[in-house]
Please model this.
Amino acid sequence: MSQEMDVIEHLLEIEREASRTLVSAQAQADSQIAAARTKADEQFKKLYSEAVKGIEEKAQLVKKEITDNRQSSLDSYKDSLSSMEMDVEAFNSLLESYISQ
Model:
């Protein structure tokens, strides 16, 4: 009976050791997963920030180009208006023809 008890005790000790090994392995795996998650989050934030910065810079360039084109068109239109010769007599005569009708 003593020999059977020794075998059972030995098997229980092996089971306890396996349980400790499993707990240790699980803790190590959890630690590695947490470190990998942290690293992945940092990489994502970095890449996301760079992408947003690039998009914002491109948007600013496009906005400046549109503003410059609009201003150029407006200046050109103003120049064309100021270079026109005013014909005050023709304008007055046109107004008189509309009033007299």
